[in-house]
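Record type: ASSEMBLY
Status: queued
Input:
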Amino acid sequence: MEPLILKIIILMAGVLALGFVGYLVATILRESEGTEKMKEISLAIRQGAMAFLRREFITLAAFTVVVFIVLAIFIEPKPLVAIAYVCGTSTSALAGWLGMNIATKANARTANATIGSWAKGLKIAFSSGAVMGFCVVGLGLLGLSIIAFIWEDSHVWLGFAFGASSVALFLRVGGGIYTKSADVGADLVGKVEKGIPEDDARNPAVIADNVGDNVGDVAGMGSDLYESYVSAIAASMVLGVVVLGSVKGMFLPLLLSAVGIVVSIIGALSVRPKEVEANFEKQVAKAHAAMNTGVYVSNILMIIASFFIIRSFVGGLGLFWALISGLLAGFLIGQATEYFTSAEHAPTKKIARAAQNGAAVTIIEGMATGMMSTVIPVLLVAIATVLAYIFGGLLGIAIAAMGMLVNLGMLLAMDCYGPIADNSAGIAQMAGLGKEVRERCEALDAVGNTTAALGKGFAIASAALASLAWLATYFAVAKIDVASLTNVGVIAGVLIGGGLTFVFSALAMRGVGDGSFAIVNEVRRQFREIKGLMEGTAKPDYVSCVDIATKKALKAMVLPGILVLLVPLALGFTLGPEAVAGLLVGALVTGFILAVMMANAGGAWDNAKKYIEAGNLGGKGSDTHKAAVIGDTVGDPFKDTAGPSLNILIKLVGKVAVIFGPVFIMLVPL
Amino acid sequence: MEPLILKIIILMAGVLALGFVGYLVATILRESEGTEKMKEISLAIRQGAMAFLRREFITLAAFTVVVFIVLAIFIEPKPLVAIAYVCGTSTSALAGWLGMNIATKANARTANATIGSWAKGLKIAFSSGAVMGFCVVGLGLLGLSIIAFIWEDSHVWLGFAFGASSVALFLRVGGGIYTKSADVGADLVGKVEKGIPEDDARNPAVIADNVGDNVGDVAGMGSDLYESYVSAIAASMVLGVVVLGSVKGMFLPLLLSAVGIVVSIIGALSVRPKEVEANFEKQVAKAHAAMNTGVYVSNILMIIASFFIIRSFVGGLGLFWALISGLLAGFLIGQATEYFTSAEHAPTKKIARAAQNGAAVTIIEGMATGMMSTVIPVLLVAIATVLAYIFGGLLGIAIAAMGMLVNLGMLLAMDCYGPIADNSAGIAQMAGLGKEVRERCEALDAVGNTTAALGKGFAIASAALASLAWLATYFAVAKIDVASLTNVGVIAGVLIGGGLTFVFSALAMRGVGDGSFAIVNEVRRQFREIKGLMEGTAKPDYVSCVDIATKKALKAMVLPGILVLLVPLALGFTLGPEAVAGLLVGALVTGFILAVMMANAGGAWDNAKKYIEAGNLGGKGSDTHKAAVIGDTVGDPFKDTAGPSLNILIKLVGKVAVIFGPVFIMLVPL
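Status: finished
Output:
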């Protein structure tokens, strides 16, 4: 095909995604937000979320300017890499802003629609998740392809991907610290000290907590996967140019992504939940079935389409099999995640039973489960990597990462559905909707817990493959043929990479500790100083809690952010470029496995608690339940802060290495 | 010097160590065991410990026979490697048996001596620790040098070191599972359900618990460091022969070890605690000072001696600096361990304060502390490795490991002092000795907690350096010049090595869960079925608890044992020898860092609890204390089971690779 036609097709796909977003937004906004009370709560959440974003974006802008200057001065081609970097930053930020804006408009609408029809509530929440999903793929593909069509220089493309990483650092790491500071802070005073229920409007931190769901699981998750998505495509393009030549190499990944958008839209449109009678379990099962249909449809269509595209572009089918390896690995890791974290299976039930012997045994059992659960993802990623390499060399690895991410529009819609359903259940509680509506919203929320757990497993696995793709790109860019373990600099790099992972996790968890401590003090202060708050006659100051949690989150990000930027540079300038390869591998192996462990342990503790709350082993309020609550509280920063932050770490060190790789090689290694 | 004279000097040093052991045993046995009650308790502990060892050794013997046959059939030179393997197994087992025998004879004697003189009690406990220490270095050096003098073939030497690993697997991993099963089981029924104090003679699991201290911290620690010690020497010899030629290469490491024994004896003899008035803090400070004198004396003498030996053997001083790098890294890691785990410093105090907000926050803070504490050991090992390599190439790395371990006699004496002091405090409690004596014993125990924590940090660091030495040896033996991270098999190996670490830890922790569950049931059964047990009129069946914990520990070892043997082989035969190098590095980086995290988190939780028990933040019985107890209980299997087991894992995969390396290279890699 003519390059011009290809360009048009690719750009059209990006536009199509954004058009689909417009259609979804229109259908969502058509719905009513319900009562005044509901509108008011939803507005408070939206204002809080936007206040968080505003403050994050101001700091991000300053950060971007600094990095822009550094890139413009040091990195060739000047200043194109720096310009592409800013484009990557702004498109990712825009996607986060749009997705979160709609998510916070959809929460009350979901709750309100549920009054009439459970299926309609599901549809709205899913559509709102799809807004985030298709903003990510649409803006990602459009941004990257426009950059690529203007400057056919792979270094510039990498700049765009680097920009996406900066946003992910702020929204995923900062958002993760924010969300758990607010959550733990709200619970410690509200539930424990004051004895008021979850999501009670009298709690000054309740809005901050609901904002946190959007911040962490919509904007954070979106920016994380935006980064993985752009990474996989950009790495495939860079390696594709080396292997397939400049035309085919650049167009193949972009065209696959364009087709991925089309099949994802078809998949999303196939999600058509049918109304069922008021039965929690049946509703949950139906919702899962409806979403799974979307996943299957888009996967099957993608497999067929990529077969023909790759055969006509490359001739052979090696890269097709590489793509399938990644796609299958992603799917199977999801299944494994479900096995280890769902209350329907043995591991989580075992944690619930362990809670009968107290909190310590609960923690030990959960840790053991989390550790054990790493084996399947590790093996699947290792096997997918080896197969992808056999089928397509280093390019095959990047294509495998694309295989996992090519249907991201559909998959992210499912992931981001969760926090919106969660918010709607919160609004139903705060606005005092009837028991039946609350139960329906809780059924939506229960579905969201599973899709969120799957999403976490998927985000980690795709981060692992994306960072393997960066490793491959680093070898190409820094012109490294050999980085041998017989080289002591490489070994030192691996060790330091491993240490970096643990320090990064520790800092993220410390951030939650400090942040929640500040929230606790603020909530106590409001209960003490605002007369009539406990009686419900006065209103709490929601904004100050949002503000405090945001400030604390930004402060807690400084050190991990600096470390992840400076350690690769310091190592590259002292021990040389091979040591940096060691660093990437050390960070990858420890970060990937630790992230899986933390996500799955956290998910399993959460569901073990819910299993007990559903009336098993003594039910709510029993000693067993109390032990399970402790497990869940430990799991929160694991699965929502430290674990997801590691996704960012392993990708970001790779990008720092790739961007600065050409500089290292000008210096003589030790 | 003439080889014959060197041989005599080396053998004499080994004999001297054993002679010193004989002298120590004589001084210990000269003391009285105290009252009938004390004799009885001590006898019960000794019988339990010996019952544990008997059962472990029977299974070990069967295991040894199987491995012997495999080695005799497959590994050249046949059957010499197999014979050396059996020699390594039996000398390590003998060291464990001797050390534990004397430790269980010294506990009552320590308690009894303390009645008259606090300093005398300290001296006896330290002497008994020194029995373990000098059994290890004496038998290790004698065994290895006799093998080396008979067969000057480096493959045979490796067989001896491989034998030491098998024993460590049984005593350290099995012992670790045993000790925490008994401990947790005893506490859950005794303290929690029945409300009787720690170390109460009515608790059927109390002897099993006291046996556990010896099993885990004397025999387990001893066999772990026996393995590291022999590993460092053997790896230095193998690489030494390659670099320095067969005569110098073989003799230099052995001669350094011989001198290490002599200076360690001088160091141990310099430990002369002075009597102080009955003041807990002063006693603890004096005890630390006395032991530190021994460490400083032996370190300084060793530095001087090795300077002259290396200069006269090699000419240059490169290897001397490599040795110093390892020695210094070991010393500094000890200091960092103390900072992160001692209640005198900020991190542990912060955990204690976190306990004011409940168990969940205690766990999160402890995990963050453990993760943060990895950074210094990681950097020190990385720096020591790079420096050692700069000064002496791959041989330098092995010599650095020797630098850390060459004074092992003195260092292990200090480590093994801890459990004996712990046991003596238990006996003082069970035998109802006066308050003053109990307090003196508790001062001895407090010192032991610190030396034990230092010992754990040291054991991990030396395991890391020893396994780096094995990696270097693997490259030499399997004739690998390059194992590049650009090779996807190497990457898959690194990932699988990381997964192996996490699964291994999970299995060890699960073993504790299952074992303690069985003990809980047995203790409950005895309280139910034995009339008059609670009233103190009937005696519990101590033996059955020991027996159950031993059986459970052996059963729990099967799967991790098989994994660590089979995974390197499976990888080598499918993805080739380079992938195995990746496996070793993946297991090393994750295992080392995870072990440090677990040991330090566990130590910090333990000391945070003790800090509160000393009357801070509400003291014993407060809610803060309860939260700290939960932290401590989570930390127990971290620091005493899973963490130390990883030392064995990272060394053992290296040895399996080295032994079977020559077989891999005959096969065509993928």
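Annotation: Chain A touches chain B through 76 residues (CB under 8 Å).
Annotation: Chain A is about 85% helix and 0% strand.
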